[in-house]
Specification:
The chain is α+β, with helices and mostly antiparallel strands and 367 residues long. 23% of the residues lie in helices and 35% in strands. Bound molecules: adenosine-5'-triphosphate.
């Protein structure tokens, strides 16, 4: 089921102090979520992710704009009539009910021709429990389960009515690092097996990038960029997106283009084509640095972190906008750990230029 969000805006009235301004949590959000895909809604705290999800679910009404599930205009429909399944960060299971009873619960409210017998409900709940691999835990109470198991029960409960759209709001936040990895793979598998159009909200870019077919990056209620995760990583539309995606984050320098060359300080670090002389922000991904004695970019080497497969060299440069530059290079690279400086050549595909004022990406060919 495709989901169409058409010029969605949600403004909350001012609260508290006199003269407080209204908050536009979602600002003219337009996007057609393709049928059967998993979409990661991504952005920093307060950017409007949860509000967007609440609008899709029907818990909030938009100030303006429309929402369609397929051809159906659901903008005015209450949540219970939209056919959505919701999973929240806190699993919100009923503590006094067993796992089986928790999963059956949404089926008990079905009326009319959808009404099911007890046997039908049990069969359906068991089928979904098998899908999320908790079928051996059906008689336990939620307090007898691990966090990951509880979250699977919550997912099973959201899936049991076969929703048209599945909405997940930070579903992995309460899990430890290992369980997060495992559960996000599970969510991906379940989504693929069911083919239910799914929107997944997170502020964790690794999480969103690893499981989403498409990511939507938001800032202050406004969509910054939509695309396949790798495409957005490789072609960020602006400095905000470039900084938001990637761990360690992109390194940003003040620089300028002059006479077909890109300068950081006095060093001409690249040849450019198609960019007029101007001041720019230069974003360089951590994996875009090649340590070499001929490198034009000379940084003060501070220390090194060995991380098994990779080494991270921490250095400084007066033109860098952050206190340190963090690069990632293969552990097999020969580096002088005692040197005071490190010289880098740069990989063209890992270097991006941005306008100093608007921070929008400047198209550029490096030669
Ligand atoms: P987080 O990752 O911290 O959950 P988020 O991206 O999900 O953040 P939202 O919860 O959607 O962000 O909030 C977006 C903005 O709208 C914030 O500035 C928030 O304070 C504001 N907001 C959210 N709900 C309300 C409300 N009911 N009344 C007033 N302002 C609200």
């Amino acid at each position: 089921m495709k989901v169409i969000l058409q010029n969605l805006t949600k403004t909350f009235p001012p609260r508290g102090k006199k003269g407080a301004a209204p908050v536009t949590a979602v600002d003219n959000f337009t996007y057609e979520i393709p049928d059967g895909k998993l979409i990661g809604l991504l952005g920093p705290s307060g950017c409007g992710k949860s509000t967007t999800l609440s609008l899709i679910c029907g818990l909030q009404k938009p100030t303006s704009g429309k929402i369609f599930f397929g051809e159906d205009d659901v903008t005015e429909l209450p949540p219970e009539n939209r056919g959505v399944g919701m999973v929240f960060q806190n699993y919100a299971l009923y503590p006094h009910l067993t796992v089986l009873e928790n999963i059956i619960f949404p089926l008990e409210n079905l009326r009319g021709k959808e009404k099911m017998t007890k046997a039908e409900m049990t069969a359906k709940a068991k089928e979904i429990a098998a899908l999320v691999q908790i079928d051996s835990l059906l008689d336990r109470k939620p307090s007898e389960l691990s966090g990951g198991q509880q979250q699977r029960v919550a997912i099973a409960r959201a899936l049991v009515k076969v929703p048209r759209v599945l909405l997940l709001d930070e579903p992995l936040s309460n899990l430890d690092a290992r369980l997060r990895l495992q559960t996000r793979e599970e969510i991906r598998r379940i989504q693929r097996e069911t083919g239910i159009t799914t929107v997944f909200v997170t502020h964790d870019q690794d999480e969103a990038m690893s499981i989403s077919d498409q990511i939507v990056v938001m800032k202050a209620g406004v969509i910054q960029q939509i695309g396949e995760p790798q495409e957005v990583y490789n072609n960020p539309a602006n400095l905000f997106v470039a900084k938001f995606l990637g761990t360690p984050p992109i390194n940003v320098f003040h620089g300028n283009v002059s006479g077909g060359k890109l300068y950081i300080g006095d060093a001409a670090v690249m040849q450019t084509k198609g960019v007029d002389d101007r001041e720019v922000f230069i974003g360089i991904r951590p994996e875009g640095f090649i340590p070499t004695s001929e490198g034009a970019l000379i940084c003060a080497q501070k220390h090194m972190e060995v991380m098994g497969r990779d080494i991270s060299i921490i250095s400084t440069h007066p033109s860098c906008t952050a206190p340190t530059i963090r690069t990632i290079i293969s552990a097999e690279t020969d580096v002088n750990t005692l040197a005071e400086t490190v010289r880098y050549a740069l990989k063209p595909g890992k270097v991006f230029l941005f306008d100093r004022e608007t921070e929008v990406r400047i198209p550029c060919n490096f030669v």
